[in-house]
Amino acid sequence: MNPGERLKQVRTQLGLTTREVAQLSKQIADAERNSEFLVSSPWLTQIENEKSAVPSIYKLFTIASIYGMAYSSLLAMYGVDVKKLSLFHAGMHIEKTHLTEALEATEPPSKYLELPVRFDAGLNLNETNLLSRMIETWGRVPMEFIQHLDLRHRLYGFVGFGDYTLYPLLRPGSFVEIDTERRDPRPRPVRSEFDRGIYFVDLRSEYACGWCEIIDNRLLLIAHPLSPSKTRSFEFPQDAEIIGQVTGVAMRVGAPAGESGQESLKAPWRS
């Protein structure tokens, strides 16, 4: 069936007339204070009978609300698969470092999560190993068991393919986890550069990821000594704001230049 026929089938199964749908839509339009959410009886009849007719995003929302359907399911009827959002975004090679929102489908989340529930008893954590060999049993764990984890204070960022501030410690194209409650870049004793705090910074017109120091109301965004980038200075907090400290990194290593469509090593290297 085409989308209109399928919508008519759902409406019929609910025992609703087009006039009743129109009356119910008024409740949504009034609540949202927007007449775009209104669905008239003649309009709905047209949508159900004409293959070329496509509802607006507002009227699709109204239909989804009345029929009890997932918004993503309605979009899929018209050829829009929201599950491809993350896939397409991953293929958009954005040069600048930026925050990323969770691109989720609008379906209800699963009540279970696949997690390793038992590790090899003879595992030596001091040795490097394959994760698949470390895990003895995978199992379905109820989401309620992990709800105590504090995920609301975490953001995730992407280090742009043009951001070489901390290269080679932090490669362009990396994903980072950001703790927004840790914004104090005061120097602390460290044993190596790996222990030095990395911060995700909002520079108003762009984002950056690097080491930071605050001296006399100026924020220094410090580049790695081997990076082609230079240390930059900004008025703080007028021109620079610390979003949070990087607490986790996921990045590709050992990949040749241009493997993902990026000439990642063709940076303006300084001599």
What would a concise description of this structure say?
By secondary structure, the chain is α+β, with helices and mostly antiparallel strands.
Layout: helices, strands, pairs:
Blueprint: H1 3-13, H2 18-32, H3 41-49, H4 57-67, H5 71-77, H6 85-90, E1 98-99, E2 112-119, H7 131-134, E3 135-142, E4 154-158, E5 175-179, E6 199-202, E7 207-215, E8 218-222, E9 232-235, E10 241-250
Antiparallel strand pairs: 1-4, 2-3, 4-5, 5-10, 6-7, 6-10, 7-8, 8-9
Rg, alpha carbons: 26 Å
- For the record, the CATH class of the largest domain is Mainly Beta
Proportion of residues in β-strands: 15-25%
CATH T-level fold name of the largest domain: Umud Fragment, subunit A
Biggest sheet, spatial arrangement of strands: 1-4-5-10-6-7-8-9
In whole angstroms, the N-to-C terminal distance is 65 Å
Quick one: CATH superfamily of the largest domain? Umud Fragment, subunit A
Spans with pLDDT under 50 lasting ≥5 residues?
104-108, 256-271
* Count of domains: 3
Return the average pLDDT rounded to an integer: 80
Question: Can you characterise this structure?
Answer:
There is one protein chain. With 271 residues, the protein is of the alpha+beta class. The chain folds into three domains: 3-80, lambda repressor-like DNA-binding domains (434 Repressor (Amino-terminal Domain)), CATH 1.10.260.40; 112-146, no CATH class; 154-250, Umud Fragment, subunit A (Ribbon). 23% of the residues lie in helices and 22% in strands. It is built from seven helices and ten strands. The strands form two sheets. Strands 1-4-5-10-6-7-8-9 form an eight-stranded antiparallel β-sheet, with no helix packed on it. Strand 7 and strand 8 (218-222) form a beta hairpin. Helix 1 packs across helix 3 (41-49). The radius of gyration is 26 Å and the shape is elongated. The chain starts with a helix and ends in a 21-residue tail after the last strand.
